[in-house]
Backbone:
Protein backbone atom coordinates (compact mmCIF):
# COMPACT_ATOMS: atom_id res chain seq x y z
CA UNK A 1 0.00 0.00 0.00
CA UNK A 2 1.33 3.44 -0.82
CA UNK A 3 2.12 5.83 2.02
CA UNK A 4 1.49 9.55 1.86
CA UNK A 5 2.42 12.31 4.27
CA UNK A 6 -0.19 15.07 4.37
CA UNK A 7 0.24 18.54 5.80
CA UNK A 8 -2.31 20.85 7.41
CA UNK A 9 -2.93 22.94 4.28
CA UNK A 10 -4.10 19.89 2.35
CA UNK A 11 -6.04 18.10 5.07
CA UNK A 12 -7.71 21.30 6.29
CA UNK A 13 -8.88 21.89 2.72
CA UNK A 14 -10.53 18.46 2.74
CA UNK A 15 -11.92 18.92 6.24
CA UNK A 16 -13.43 22.33 5.43
CA UNK A 17 -14.18 21.57 1.76
CA UNK A 18 -12.04 24.47 0.59
CA UNK A 19 -10.97 25.03 -3.02
CA UNK A 20 -8.82 22.16 -4.27
CA UNK A 21 -10.10 19.65 -1.73
CA UNK A 22 -11.42 17.22 -4.36
CA UNK A 23 -7.95 16.80 -5.88
CA UNK A 24 -6.45 16.14 -2.44
CA UNK A 25 -9.20 13.69 -1.47
CA UNK A 26 -8.65 11.78 -4.70
CA UNK A 27 -4.93 11.37 -3.96
CA UNK A 28 -5.67 10.10 -0.45
CA UNK A 29 -8.01 7.37 -1.67
CA UNK A 30 -6.54 3.95 -0.97
CA UNK A 31 -3.36 5.29 0.65
CA UNK A 32 -1.98 4.97 4.15
CA UNK A 33 -2.02 8.57 5.38
CA UNK A 34 0.81 9.54 7.73
CA UNK A 35 1.52 12.75 9.63
CA UNK A 36 3.38 14.18 12.61
CA UNK A 37 1.26 14.84 15.74
CA UNK A 38 1.61 18.55 14.99
CA UNK A 39 -1.12 18.09 12.38
CA UNK A 40 -3.72 17.60 15.13
CA UNK A 41 -3.10 21.08 16.49
CA UNK A 42 -2.87 22.73 13.09
CA UNK A 43 -6.23 21.22 12.14
CA UNK A 44 -7.72 22.30 15.48
CA UNK A 45 -6.50 25.83 14.80
CA UNK A 46 -7.97 25.81 11.29
CA UNK A 47 -11.30 24.58 12.68
CA UNK A 48 -11.34 27.22 15.43
CA UNK A 49 -10.61 30.01 12.93
CA UNK A 50 -13.28 28.73 10.56
CA UNK A 51 -15.80 28.47 13.40
CA UNK A 52 -15.02 32.05 14.45
CA UNK A 53 -15.70 33.26 10.89
CA UNK A 54 -18.85 31.16 10.51
CA UNK A 55 -20.19 30.78 14.04
CA UNK A 56 -23.55 29.45 12.80
CA UNK A 57 -21.65 26.42 11.40
CA UNK A 58 -19.36 25.88 14.41
CA UNK A 59 -20.92 22.56 15.51
CA UNK A 60 -20.54 21.12 12.00
CA UNK A 61 -16.97 22.41 11.71
CA UNK A 62 -15.94 20.83 15.01
CA UNK A 63 -17.69 17.58 14.06
CA UNK A 64 -15.65 17.55 10.84
CA UNK A 65 -12.48 18.10 12.87
CA UNK A 66 -13.22 15.11 15.07
CA UNK A 67 -14.16 12.98 12.07
CA UNK A 68 -10.97 13.96 10.23
CA UNK A 69 -8.76 13.17 13.22
CA UNK A 70 -10.39 9.75 13.58
CA UNK A 71 -9.92 8.68 9.94
CA UNK A 72 -7.03 6.34 10.61
CA UNK A 73 -4.08 8.67 10.19
CA UNK A 74 -0.85 6.96 11.19
CA UNK A 75 0.94 9.33 13.56
CA UNK A 76 4.75 9.46 13.52
CA UNK A 77 7.02 11.43 15.82
CA UNK A 78 9.69 13.45 14.07
CA UNK A 79 13.25 14.16 15.15
CA UNK A 80 13.22 17.79 16.35
CA UNK A 81 16.94 18.26 15.81
CA UNK A 82 16.80 16.98 12.26
CA UNK A 83 13.70 19.06 11.58
CA UNK A 84 15.43 22.23 12.84
CA UNK A 85 18.39 21.56 10.55
CA UNK A 86 16.07 20.90 7.62
CA UNK A 87 14.17 24.13 8.33
CA UNK A 88 17.47 26.00 8.32
CA UNK A 89 18.56 24.35 5.05
CA UNK A 90 15.30 25.02 3.22
CA UNK A 91 14.12 28.29 4.76
CA UNK A 92 10.87 26.60 5.78
CA UNK A 93 9.22 27.00 9.15
CA UNK A 94 9.97 24.19 11.58
CA UNK A 95 6.33 23.20 11.28
CA UNK A 96 6.51 22.78 7.50
CA UNK A 97 9.90 21.12 7.74
CA UNK A 98 8.41 18.46 10.03
CA UNK A 99 6.17 17.28 7.17
CA UNK A 100 9.04 17.34 4.71
CA UNK A 101 11.32 15.43 7.10
CA UNK A 102 8.66 12.79 7.72
CA UNK A 103 8.08 12.31 3.99
CA UNK A 104 11.82 11.82 3.54
CA UNK A 105 12.12 9.46 6.49
CA UNK A 106 9.19 7.33 5.29
CA UNK A 107 10.21 7.67 1.61
CA UNK A 108 6.63 8.77 0.99
CA UNK A 109 5.05 11.40 -1.21
CA UNK A 110 4.08 14.65 0.49
CA UNK A 111 0.67 16.17 -0.18
CA UNK A 112 0.49 19.90 0.42
CA UNK A 113 -1.27 22.96 -0.93
CA UNK A 114 1.45 25.20 0.54
CA UNK A 115 3.56 26.64 -2.30
CA UNK A 116 6.74 27.10 -0.26
CA UNK A 117 6.58 23.58 1.10
CA UNK A 118 5.79 22.15 -2.32
CA UNK A 119 8.79 23.88 -3.85
CA UNK A 120 11.04 22.49 -1.12
CA UNK A 121 10.07 18.95 -2.09
CA UNK A 122 12.48 19.22 -5.00
CA UNK A 123 15.04 17.55 -2.72
CA UNK A 124 15.04 13.77 -3.01
CA UNK A 125 14.08 11.81 0.10
CA UNK A 126 17.57 10.34 0.57
CA UNK A 127 19.12 13.80 0.16
CA UNK A 128 16.80 15.21 2.84
CA UNK A 129 17.79 12.46 5.26
CA UNK A 130 21.50 12.72 4.49
CA UNK A 131 21.60 16.50 4.83
CA UNK A 132 19.49 16.62 7.99
CA UNK A 133 21.25 13.82 9.84
CA UNK A 134 23.21 15.10 12.83
Residues:
Amino acid sequence: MRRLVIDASALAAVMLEEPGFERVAERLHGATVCAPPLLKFELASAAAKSAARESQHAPEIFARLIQTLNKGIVWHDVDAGDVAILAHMTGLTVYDASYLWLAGWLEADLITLDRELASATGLKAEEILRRSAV
Remarks:
- The radius of gyration is 15 Å.
